[in-house]
Structures are given as structure tokens and as C-alpha cells.
Amino acid sequence: METNRSYDLIIVGAGSTGAILAARLTERGDRRVLLLESGPDIDPDDTPEEMRSANPLAIMDPTRFPQYTWPELLVRRTSSQAPRVYDRGRGAGGSSTVNWQVAHRAMLEDFDIWAEQGCRGWSGEELLPAMNRLETDIDYGSAPYHGNSGPISIARPPVSQWGHVDLTLLECGLERGHQWHDDLNAPDSTGICATPLNRIDDNRVSTNDGYLAPARHRENLHVVFGAHVSHVRLNGERATGVEAIVDGKTRSYSAAEVILAAGSTFSPGILMRSGIGPEKHLRDVGIDVVADLPVGQNLVDHASVGVQLYLNERAQCATFRDRHSNLYIRFDSGHPDTGSNDMVMSSRNLNGYDLEGLRRGALAVNLWQTFSRGELRIPGFDPLAMPIIDQHLLSDERDLVRLREGAKQLFDIAASRQVKAIADDVALTQGLNVATDRRPSDLRSDQDIDQWMLESVRDTWHLVGTCRMGSDSDPRTVVDSDCRILGIEGLRVIDGSIMPEVPRANTNLPCMAIAEHMAYRLNR
Question: How far, in Å, CA of 521 to CA of 501, rounded?
């Protein structure tokens, strides 16, 4: 095992949070920071066309670009489904380099729920400055609830650039009483909105582009790519560094403090291999227990079902580089346990990155507020083995009932004259990409819809909560309000895994806000 020099701080993961932390925490020149990333370095000036494209369905394909994702990472969505690939980014910028580029903020009320559950300093009012700092909102940067000088550029595609499926869903939504709102990220928005995108000048703006690359010249920042962290080294109940596999060799890195920013799928495994996790599970896989904490136990994701549209020639996009989706319809289910905007519908103008994808569109309905909980485990100490993830989507009756009603609304739109004008046929899907030989009309009862959903529901790649933040007295808590692991000194987790609840939004911008919020606090 090779030993390397000591640092003030080690950050594990260069993704949506780690890249921000590395950039912000090295603004202080007296802090020596080591950033370890398991994936490859990515030069913003030399990225594949598919990474720059407005349509991300190629760069997310693990069969085409396995170096930027985790082809062996599988997730079981429900007990009625076999495990399938789960899309997570790898390399500089993490998932922000391969995702759908949707710059959707969490509602301020989402953070208020966190504060109510014991996360002191995490209310919407307290997070708003971080949300503003990270962005340059091209359209609404002058508004008090937006930023105009941050590293992440955000803009909304004008309706004139929308595809035929977008425009069809827009017309159907207006006809059914949904109102237009200019800014999806405004505090009071609901109904139909253009999706804000973290892209400008026909290119995505990842955390690598906006944060990490501009900071790479700093002498106090050292970055190692291809470094797969095995575990945190502990001296009693204090973190002293990490061990990682680099170029096939085990290397040891020392630091006064360690921050895990490897995401909801990988930060939990690093903790468990370090002896921090559920006592019974760790003993079952032969790992000595240092701290008995519910790591991996609060896993949550948004659930989604959809239909595929076989588009007629008039409705097809001109090129598979066109934007695949441009609008959301957010609405209330009316369920007594939910807040506003707990549901969302979306469109796809194409469903692939090839000629066949041009012939297929899609419509989806998602749960934007989720009650079902899953779990993440590890198979043993092998740091290269993928975690075992069971999401248990729709296991909470409140989720099943609301998604069923949302599916009925989706089927109503799919049978509309507007959809018939652009699509020769409509099929039920397995996930959202794979069409089946069944039609919405084949589902004749609530029981039929429920069975189809359990067999076909997918997540939205918004997995969070596996290192839950909360009060010290809450048995569900893994990290406190300062993101410190309970009972362990010098060790924090700062990524989407700390979210106690999944926000009513895509999770990339909320993850960035977490990193901005904590970097500001740590720099004070």
C-alpha cells in the first residue's frame, strides 16, 4: 500500500456537490484540498458531441459511453420487477455531465419540511441565498429570488423551439384547466411551465464546466481521477483519511477532515465499509461495527409511468440532436397528506438518439412527492462491488393511489384528438423507453392499472436520503445539521444522500444548493 502526503481536507467525489465543494473550499488559499474521483477527467473544451447535445439520451446510454456512467449499477424498482440499470454519472461533474440538464429548483416549502424534521439552518429562507449564488438565470436574474452572477447558466427554451409532443401536451393541459406560468423556479409557480435548462450557447453547463475546471489551476487543489475510495480510515471515533484504489494499487491519503460527496448510491457504501451503518447488516457481511447508524435506510426516489407515442412523419423532430423535452405540468393530487405540486406530467419529442428514436415520443406522469421508502445494502467489503438497491416504489398506498389517478389523466390525454393528430398509435411502456404490446384501453380496472404500474414503474434517477440528515434524537438520523456523521469526528457527508425527503423537483439543482450552502458555512 502506497502512502501519500497529508491534506487539510479530502473530498470524495467530483460530481454535482463535490465539484462545487472543491472549488468553493479552495477559495481560501491556506486550505490544502485533495479531490478524489472514481471516474475520468473531462476537459470542457473537448467533450463528445453527445455530452453537449440538448438531447442527453445518447450520453446516458451505458452501452455507448460506459466510461461516463455505471453500467453494472442495478436497481430493483418493485418486487414485481427484475433489477435494471440505474443511471448515475461518473467523472468530473458526475451526473451533471450526463443528466437531462433540467435546472429545476426545489420549492422553498421542501426545505421548510427539512427544518421541521430537525435540520437546523436548512429552511427555504436559509437556502435561498445558496440557490441564488449558484446560478446565472438568463431570463429572470434580476428577480430577488434568482441569481445573475453564478457559475451555472440557466435559460428556458422558447415555445417557438418546442417539439410537436411538447406543443400537444401544452394544448391538452390548457384545455384541462392548467394555467401557464412563466418561471418554473419562482416561489409561487404551478401549472404549465417551460423547463429551465442548465445549458447556454448550445452546450450543457455542468458543475465541472462552471465550478471545477476554473479552479483546477489553484496550487492548493490536487485532483486524482480513477480513484475508487474503499473506506474511511478511522482512529477510534475520528476520521484520519481514506484508502483508495488507484491504477490497481491501494493508496492511503491522510487529512484532518474527510467529506464524502459520492452521491446517494456510493457514499453509503463507503460508510458501511468503514464500519458505519446498520449493525445487523454490517455483521452479516463481515464488517466490524464502529457506529450503528441507519445508513441506506431512508432511500427515496420519484416514481413515473408513461405511454409511448408512435409519431407520424409530420410530428417527428428534424434531428435526434433536438431537445427531447421542454415543459412540465405540475398539479395537485388533492390527497390530504400532500402539499402543492405533488404531481407532474412531461413530454418527450423523441425517444432515442437515432433514426428510430425520431419515430417515437412519450408522455409521462410522475409522483413529485414520495412516501415510499427503500433501502441500500452492500454485498461485502469489496469496494468495486455495486450496492444492492431495492427502491420499493409504490409500496406506500398513498403513492399507489395518486399515481393511479395520474395515469388515468395521462390516458385521457393519450386518447385526445390532439394526440391522435400527431401519433398513429399509443402503447403502454415498461419504464419509459421500452414499448409493450399493450394499449391503455387494455387496462379495464384499477387493479389492472396497479398491476401494470408495479410491473412497469420506473424511477426518475432522483435517488436521495441514504445518509439522512436530522436531529440527534431522531433514530433515522445519520448526519446532523452540519452534515457531520453522528459519533464520528472529522467526517461529513455533503451530497443528495443527506436529504430527509426528496424535493418536489429534479434533484440536481437541490444537490448543488446543498454544496453551496455548506461551502459558505465551512468558509465562514
Answer: 22
What pLDDT digit, counting tens, does each position of 412-427 carry?
A: 999 999 999 999 999 9
Which of the 8 DSSP states describes residue 466? Answer: T
Q: Which amino acid is at 142?
A: S
CB of 196 closer than 8 Å to CB of 103:
yes
Three-state SS sequence of 492-521? EECCHHHCCCCCCCCCHHHHHHHHHHHHHH
Give the other-Cβ count within 10 Å of 115's Cβ: 18
DSSP-assigned states of every residue in 283-332: HHTT---SEE--TT-SBB--EEEEEEEEE-GGGS-S-TTS-S--EEEEE-
Helices (H), ranges, 8-72: 18-25, 49-52
Write a three-state SS string for 205-262. CCHHHHHHHHHCCCCCEEEEECEEEEEEEEECCEEEEEEEEECCEEEEEEEEEEEECC
Separation of first and last alpha carbons in the chain: 36
Report which of 458, 425, 456 is spatially closest to residue 441, judged by C-alpha positions.
425
Half-sphere exposure of 301 (CA within 13 A, CB side): 26
User: What pairing do the DSSP bridges indicate for beta strands 152-154 and 135-137?
Assistant: parallel
> In this predicted model, what pLDDT tens digit does every residue of 294-333 receive, in sequence order?
999 999 999 999 999 999 999 999 999 999 999 999 999 9
Of 459, 462, 429, nearest to 361 by C-alpha is 429
Q: How many whole angstroms separate alpha carbon 452 and alpha carbon 236? A: 50
What is the crossing angle of helices 18-25 and 508-523, to 10°?
Answer: 20
Reported as type and span, the H/E element at residue 403 is helix 397-414
Regarding beta strands 276-277 and 2-12, do their DSSP bridges make them parallel or antiparallel, or are they unpaired?
unpaired
% of the chain at pLDDT higher than 70? 99
- Whole-model pTM over 0.90: yes
**Residue 405 and residue 414: Cα distance in Å, rounded?**
14
Name residue, grid cell 410522475: 366
Query: What is the rounded CA–CA span in Å between residue 50 and residue 59?
Result: 5
Q: Which residues are the active-site residues?
A: 462
Q: Exposed, middle or buried by CB within 10 Å (0-12, 13-18, 19+), for 474? A: middle
Q: Provide CB contacts within 8 A for 434, sequence distance 6+.
A: none
Q: Report CA torsion sign: 352, 354, 356, 360.
A: positive
Q: Give per-residue pLDDT as tens, 493-502.
A: 999 999 999 9
Neighbour-count burial of 379, counting CB atoms closer than 10 A to its CB (0-12 exposed, 13-18 middle, 19+ buried): exposed
Q: In angstroms, rounded to a whole number, what is the distance separating the alpha carbons of residues 495 and 149? A: 23
Query: Per residue in 112-167, pLDDT tens?
Result: 999 999 999 999 999 999 999 999 999 999 999 999 999 999 999 999 999 999 99
